């Protein structure tokens, strides 16, 4: 009974994080992006600086009609948002934010996280195909092409901290972390973060949803709640990427008073990385398809391989 | 029957059922998506058998890479969105018989090879990444290196084929 | 656990027992995800209006009547990248078990992995020399 | 590649500076906007000036001006003269759902019956309410600002210059005459 209760508590915490953190990131993006562009962003919903804008959006989305195009493949079209969103929820269960504060510690945590994150892209592909819309199909195509460019450096860069910590357990990696990792794991950190951005289709890698060319890429035909789920998936993806970057490269809960304030350190670091994601969206223009492939195969993969060589040398040296 | 056994049966049934749908559905992309379910259920089976690492490899490589590649290939070809009638030929019976025989051979081989083997799953994860690494890098280094040659051959072959003519190709690995 | 304080606030929040126990929450969260999505869709069905019309369900093509089917064919431009990706993904998978054991096994294992990656890298060099990595 | 990197840094720096700076967005519904002079908000009608010459309606590219009128007889000014007729405006309406705010009607009006008003908050829920009849158009007249003063550095308006010249000429003439008179006087003495 106690076990079941504890399990329920953990699940509620994970679910709460999944529902709240993406909203926080979204609201931050509203305001930070606006101010970075010398605007003020939403100001009305909720009174103080539009803090309730996303809640209002959610209420609106929930009430909007769900239009399924006549030409679309109905079942796949309806299922796609769920396939895009649920993997990020599942990933969150394995990410530790404090010592012992984790949905479920898995021995193979890192690999689990990478594998499940890869599933999410299927939802976007399904949306792209099932919409029976030219924009959507082109967007889906670009998603797949982008995935092919970035999944590899993403995975390669993720191996590096696991090698340094000699474990695939995410908590284990955080516990083995030392501040000097920030220096010698820096190439891996950069590759991981950039490839992760591309995986999430965040600007500057938002070619699949490039609004000036493809309307909204694979999500063009979506309305109402299903559209909202895709957006939620995107922001949950930012949270997951930020959390993974934190756990793998930035030392997770490590910091002064880690025993008491570990979770606060984690959340702070996650917030900073998420802010960087938003910042990059404002500052960097979209990359072209060929630039994307070139960056991946001629910069990120070699850097990641170099990082692996460096890490293995240091690891063996230290015995 | 234990919960694990029950779950295993469920996963197995899912794998077989969705595999049947893969070959019977008339829409190409649907069959690729049912393949996702099949492979996912298979990963579940691996997981229940204690092969933790292999299960997630199954998800990462097959669901995340191969199926995406497959969908990508389907999108690139002339596959229409609608139902394709020309996919099913009259050789149903022969095909079923062939599949049955191949399945039988496989089951026989596996049973003959590992029929009596028992692995205790619950005490220590036998299929964890560490034990896999130990096994590969202590005992099975040569097959591991040979695998790289196989992958190289696949890569070179794919490049040669796709340079020859713009073919949509099959999966290499 | 070196972190007694947090562990006392959230007792036994770290792991359930055994191999299967550790996957119970994973299974549970998948179920929770499915329930969440189902609940969202059901709630949405209760809240939303439904007034379909042929115009509304027309495929969106920037306001113009759609031309042909929603199927656009695309040049097989980056298909080789797809091959490269799958081959290297298979390759990368072996790095994970290796990462947990390489330090104990020493330079020989690093060399083995180097040979493994090197042989596949020959394929990358081949692709490069053949010019398939260049954008046409 | 290096230029790409430097651009990235510069972009990050500029956006960060923007973030630190206070945004100057005008909070429109809370704070009234500062409209530039000659803002094109709505077209006002000064009915008394209108002679129903129909120039505005004819010049309008959108055909959004509707004018109805009838003729009325005006009693002759002098006894026995012919009776005159004059146009009386019955309806003057502008359909703002068609209007494209080009202002040609205002330029075309020879009698300054049409003016730009800076008022812009006249959105309606029903598109038919966007057709403003003449009484509504007359209302807008009260919001028309006084014409802006001349630029201090500007050349003098033609009218003033002409008048000035004429006055100077007249003054010069009168002075010349006066001088002549004095001379005459002197010669006379």
Question: Would you mind describing this structure in some detail?
Answer:
The complex is a heterotetramer of chains A (319), B (173), C (136) and D (189). With 319 residues, chain A is mostly helical. Chain A is built from 12 helices and no strands. Chain A is globular and about 65 Å long. Chain B is an all-alpha fold and 173 residues long. Chain B has a domain at 1-82: Four Helix Bundle (Hemerythrin (Met), subunit A) (Up-down Bundle), CATH 1.20.120.1200. In chain B, helix 1 packs antiparallel against helix 2 (28-48) and helix 2 runs antiparallel to helix 3 (52-76). Chain B is globular and about 50 Å long. Chain C is mainly α and 136 residues long. Chain C folds into 2 domains: 4-47; 76-129. In chain C, helix 3 packs antiparallel against helix 5 (107-129) and helix 4 (95-105) packs antiparallel against helix 5 (107-129). Chain C is flat and about 70 Å long. In chain C, 32% of the residues are buried. By secondary structure, chain D is of the alpha+beta class. Chain D folds into 2 domains: 30-141, Alpha-Beta Plaits; 151-189. The longest helix of chain D has 31 residues, at 158-188. Chain D is flat. The model of chain D has no long low-confidence stretch (mean pLDDT 84). At the A-C interface, helix 1, helix 3, helix 4, helix 5 and helix 10 of A face helix 1, helix 2, helix 3, helix 4 and helix 5 of C.
């Amino acid at each position: 009974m106690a076990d079941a209760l504890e399990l329920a508590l953990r699940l509620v915490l994970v679910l709460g994080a999944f529902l709240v953190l993406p909203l926080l990131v979204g609201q931050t993006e509203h305001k930070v992006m606006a101010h970075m562009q010398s605007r003020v962003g939403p100001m009305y919903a909720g009174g103080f600086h539009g803090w309730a804008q996303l809640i209002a959006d959610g209420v609106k989305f929930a009430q909007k009609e769900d239009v399924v195009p006549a030409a679309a493949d109905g079942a796949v079209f309806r299922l796609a948002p769920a396939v895009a969103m649920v993997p990020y929820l599942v990933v969150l269960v394995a990410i530790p934010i404090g010592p012992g504060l984790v949905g479920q510690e898995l021995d193979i945590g890192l690999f689990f996280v990478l594998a499940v994150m890869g599933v999410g892209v299927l939802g976007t592909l399904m949306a792209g195909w099932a919409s029976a819309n030219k924009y959507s199909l082109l967007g889906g195509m670009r998603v797949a092409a982008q995935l092919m460019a970035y999944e590899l450096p993403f995975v390669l860069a993720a191996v590096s901290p696991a090698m340094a910590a000699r474990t695939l357990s995410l908590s284990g990696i955080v516990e083995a972390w030392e501040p000097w990792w920030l220096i010698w794991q820096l190439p891996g950190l950069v590759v991981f973060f950039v490839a992760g951005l591309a995986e999430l289709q965040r600007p500057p890698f938002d070619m699949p949803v490039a609004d000036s060319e493809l309307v909204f890429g694979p999500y063009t035909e979506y309305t109402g709640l299903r559209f909202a789920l895709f957006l939620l998936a995107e922001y949950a993806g930012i949270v997951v990427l930020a959390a993974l970057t934190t756990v793998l490269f930035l030392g997770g809960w490590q910091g002064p008073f880690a025993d008491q304030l570990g979770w606060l350190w984690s959340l702070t670091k996650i917030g900073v990385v998420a802010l960087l994601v938003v910042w990059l969206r404002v500052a960097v223009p979209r990359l072209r398809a060929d630039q994307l492939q070139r960056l991946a195969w001629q910069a990120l993969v070699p850097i990641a391989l170099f990082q692996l060589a460096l890490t293995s040398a240091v690891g063996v040296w230290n015995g | 029957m234990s919960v694990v056994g029950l779950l295993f049966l469920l996963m197995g049934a899912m794998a077989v059922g969705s595999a049947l749908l893969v070959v019977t559905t008339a829409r190409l992309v649907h069959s690729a998506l049912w393949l996702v379910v099949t492979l996912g259920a298979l990963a579940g089976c691996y997981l229940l058998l204690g092969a933790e690492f292999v299960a997630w490899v199954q998800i990462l490589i097959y669901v995340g890479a191969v199926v995406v590649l497959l969908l990508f290939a389907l999108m690139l070809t002339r596959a229409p969105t609608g139902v394709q009638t020309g996919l099913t030929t009259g050789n149903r019976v022969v095909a079923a018989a062939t599949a049955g025989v191949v399945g039988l051979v496989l089951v026989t081989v596996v049973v003959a090879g590992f029929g009596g083997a028992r692995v205790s799953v619950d005490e220590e994860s036998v299929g964890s990444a560490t034990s896999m690494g130990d096994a590969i890098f202590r005992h099975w280094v040569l097959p591991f290196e040979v695998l790289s040659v196989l992958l190289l051959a696949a890569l070179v072959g794919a490049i040669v084929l796709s340079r020859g003519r713009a073919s949509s190709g099959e999966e290499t690995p | 656990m070196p972190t007694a304080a947090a562990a006392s606030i959230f007792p036994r929040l770290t792991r359930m027992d055994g191999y299967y126990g550790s996957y119970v929450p994973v299974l549970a969260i998948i179920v929770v995800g499915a329930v969440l999505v189902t609940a969202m869709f059901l709630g949405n069905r209760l809240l939303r209006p439904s007034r379909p019309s042929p115009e509304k369900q027309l495929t969106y093509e920037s306001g113009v009547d759609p031309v042909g089917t929603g199927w656009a064919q695309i040049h097989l431009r980056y298909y080789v990248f797809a091959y490269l990706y799958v081959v290297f993904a298979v390759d990368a998978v072996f790095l994970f078990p290796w990462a947990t054991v390489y330090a104990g096994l020493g330079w020989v294992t690093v060399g083995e992995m180097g040979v493994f990656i090197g042989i596949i890298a020959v394929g990358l060099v081949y692709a490069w020399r053949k010019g398939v990595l260049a954008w046409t | 590649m290096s230029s790409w990197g430097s651009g990235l840094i510069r972009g990050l720096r500029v956006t960060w500076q923007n973030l630190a700076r206070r945004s100057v967005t005008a909070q429109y519904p809370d704070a009234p906007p500062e409209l530039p002079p000659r803002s094109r908000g709505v077209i006002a009608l000064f009915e008394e000036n209108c002679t129903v010459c129909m120039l505005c309606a004819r010049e309008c590219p959108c055909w959004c001006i509707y004018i109805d009128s009838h003729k009325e007889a005006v009693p002759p000014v002098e006894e026995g003269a012919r009776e005159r007729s004059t146009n009386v405006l019955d309806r003057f309406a502008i359909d703002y759902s068609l209007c494209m705010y080009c202002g040609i009607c205002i330029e075309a009006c020879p009698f300054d019956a049409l003016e730009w008003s800076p008022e812009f908050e006249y959105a309606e829920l029903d598109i038919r309410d966007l057709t403003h009849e003449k009484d509504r158009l007359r209302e807008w007249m009260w919001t028309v600002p006084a014409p802006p003063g001349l630029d201090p550095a500007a050349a003098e308006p033609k009218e003033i210059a002409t008048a000035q010249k004429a006055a100077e000429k007249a003054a010069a003439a009168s002075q010349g005459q006066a001088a002549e008179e004095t001379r005459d006087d002197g010669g006379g003495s």
